[in-house]
Specification:
316 residues, mainly alpha, two-stranded parallel ribbon, two-stranded antiparallel ribbon, 4 strands, elongated, Chaperone_Skp
Length: 316
């Protein structure tokens, strides 16, 4: 009832105030912002590890109490009244200790709440600082937290500045690592982002341009990969051709022929077409010398035959 009254009061105030001046209202989703901040994720993981360890301890104690109760139920007929009462007191003591431990770890004022506040408070302070800066720069009159106890019956997406808060926090962390030149580039980029926040249509056009740019870059990468593949295939073909010519020259020199077996591997066999092919340098030298002498003898015989022919013609 109090929440509804407060919302109604705000609505009436805004209506009256809007008659004399324009009211600029925005809202955030604190849970969404915290999930986007890396420091929060790290702090949450640390806390979740501790909570898991505490839950394991609680589960162990519960199992111990259950075991005590089962043993008592099994042995009750064999025990005296005093022993039964003693074991029941032990079980009650264990249950009370378990309850106290649960309250200590997960109660309203337990370790989980205290450590969560300790871990998250610095991050929340960053968020509040960013919200104040955005409110001052863009002249917001009111900024609400969508995830708080205040019930917002309707909120247009264009009034959500959660992403702006996340960017503001990230910008602050990045600036500490940038040089002056890089900071100028970052300032220009931030100015464009801020302008897009004020003009959603501009942001949509920028998104279309970015998508087209990404598509062009992808197409260029695909073409580049295709060209590189074509060049690589040509290089491999040229290398295979050179190797084939080299193998053929080597085979001709050594008197062997290059053939491929059924597996595609090269094999060398003696040249069967010429059984007199020399296999050693001495034999090749001897054959060359014989051929040279044969050519000289043929030339001498031809010359002698020509002289005899001329003599016979002169006699006639």
């Amino acid at each position: 009832m109090k929440k509804l009254f407060f919302v109604t009061l705000l609505f009436v105030y805004f209506s009256n105030f809007a008659q004399t001046a324009s009211v600029r209202i925005g809202y955030i989703d604190m849970e969404y912002i915290l999930e986007k901040v890396p420091d929060y994720a790290e702090a949450k993981n640390q806390l979740d590890l501790k909570a898991s360890k505490w839950k394991e301890d609680i589960e162990v104690r519960k199992n111990e109490i259950t075991k005590l109760k089962e043993n008592l139920a099994t042995e009750k007929v064999l025990l005296t009244k005093e022993l039964i009462e003693e074991r029941e007191e032990e079980i009650s003591f264990q249950e009370k200790e378990l309850f106290d431990y649960q309250e200590k770890r997960f109660g309203a004022r337990g370790d989980l709440i205290i450590q969560k506040t300790t871990l998250i408070k610095p991050i929340q302070d960053q968020v509040f600082t960013a919200i104040q800066d955005i409110a001052e720069q863009k002249r917001y009159d009111f900024i609400f937290d969508k995830s708080s106890d205040l019930t917002i019956l309707f909120a247009s997406q264009r009034h959500d500045i959660s992403d702006q808060v996340v960017r503001a926090i990230m910008r602050s962390e990045k600036r500490q690592q940038l040089s002056k030149k890089e900071q100028k580039i970052q300032d220009a980029k931030e100015a464009i982002e801020d302008l897009q926040d004020e003009n959603p249509a501009l942001a949509e056009r920028q998104k279309v341009l970015d998508d087209k740019k990404a598509a062009r870059e992808k197409l260029l990468e695909e073409r580049k990969a295709a060209r590189e593949k074509l060049l690589e295939d040509r290089r491999k073909a040229a290398e295979e051709k050179r190797q084939k010519l080299k193998d053929e020259r080597e085979a001709a020199k050594n008197g062997t022929v290059i053939e491929k077996d059924s597996t595609g591997n090269k094999t060398e066999e003696p040249n069967k077409q010429d059984s007199n092919t020399p296999t050693t340098p001495e034999e090749r030298k001897r054959i060359i010398e014989e051929r040279r002498k044969k050519v000289i003898a043929e030339r001498e015989a031809a010359k002698k035959a020509k002289l005899e022919e001329q003599k016979s013609k002169e006699k006639e």
